[in-house]
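Comment thread on ticket #2218

A.B. wrote:
> Attaching the input chain for the structure job we discussed in standup.
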Amino acid sequence: MKTKIRLPHVFPVGSVPDGGQVTNDFLAVINAIDTSKSRSIVIPSFGSDEAVAVEDGTVGIVIPSDMDEWRLTKVLSSVLTPSSSETVDIQIRRTREEVDTDLLTTKLTISEEEYFAEDGVIDETKNMVRTGDLIFVDCDSAGTDTYGLFTVLTFEE
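C.D. wrote:
> Ran it. Output below, let me know if you need it in another format.
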């Protein structure tokens, strides 16, 4: 069963994403990932019925005070319908005090006909987050006929 709901522009870490079409099972898995030493958060950039497009992310997360000075350690992006040609290239962007910083030295790339990738290289000199930082997913290449883009970010103390 799918539930269609609207996305806010920015939502706090730990909240259930409020948009796109995602199954209740998907949300249950994401909510079960949270632990005291690490936290995984989903950013739904494009809902399951939305074509993936090249754009700087407009939906993001806010880093709360209990994650101050945590580090981004893993990134995984997945699409509902894979590209029929070309790749989907993803960059993770942190905005702090109106300054944008790319957190990946090598973009994450979902290859043609693939459903997910976790090959992005995190810049370990820029991966620390602070209270109030905004984290966005930028799509630098959208592939062809690609639908639904969800990214899981894992942070550790």
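A.B. wrote:
> Thanks. Noting for the ticket: Residues 1-30 have pLDDT under 50 and may be disordered.
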